[in-house]
What we know:
Layout: H1 2-13, H2 17-30, H3 36-49, H4 52-65, H5 71-83, H6 87-101, H7 118-130, H8 134-146, H9 153-165, H10 169-178, H11 185-197, H12 201-213, H13 220-233, H14 236-249, H15 255-267, H16 271-283
The protein binds one RNA strand through helix 1, helix 3, helix 5, helix 7 and helix 9.
Amino acid sequence: AYTFSLLMKAYLKSGQFDKVKAAAHDMKIRGIPLTNHHYTALIGAYGRQGSMSEMQQVLGTMDFDGIPKDRTLYNALIYAYCRNNAVEEAMRVKDDMYNRSIGASGAVPMDPSLRPDPFTYATILDALGRREKFDEMAALRTEMLEREVPETTGVCNVLIDAHARAGRLDAALAIKTSMNAPPDVITYSTLVLHLNRASRSDDVALLVAEMASNQVRENTYFCNALMDAHRKKGDVEQAQALKDRMKVSGIRADLVTFNILLDTYVKAGRSIEALELRDEMRELGLGEN
RNA sequence: CGCAACGUCUAUCACGCUU
Length: 289
């Protein structure tokens, strides 16, 4: 069962949804009972492919087999609803979880472990954020406060991203300033990305410095966001300098990094350097692309 | 029993899909 759990997780992560389903099928044939871990992966696969009716069938199977659903599975379910434009339904699941956690759902037995957690709220907040439903987001934050669900770094990142994407940069910065949880590399890359798009380079510089003093390590995503800003300005020197800095700091360049660099070189008419990048990609095992 | 890890959320370019 553990082997299948690992397999299904890997398939889900790499977008091979049919293989997740095939693995579940394989387990049934072999008579290996599926657990919440397997069902969570299955729900993730169905949610990402938009197969809502098949997902409902899986939920029915769990009920039929008498397998109680745990919080992580419900969170995955909420994610699936959110991805498929059913935020209302996601909210309903979240409320059911809460009611069951306090024993307020009638004949259904109480289960405190079903209490909605920061993941639950982050998922719904993200869906609301992508739809720019700021009032509903505020209401959810109030609910979190009442129910003593902590605003973790992940939750704050979702809030910051929602505001920043909508161009509400100062609101986004205000959340970062007031958050109790420590900002992480995602917090900084979200802000830096959108501040750069708004040409607020002074704020970017401040954040980059703050990040260093907070000992938050840059990663590939973060550097790619910076790199793209250089590309948009046509700043080949800065892009090159960043690429070198990444190498020195041991930050892996990925396909995105190279796409940005290629475009930067080509637009600057430096096709020889662009071609050299191809060799470098091969050395890093990115040549197939 | 305790502790830890693990399955669920959030950030980057392009392409493609949908509009």
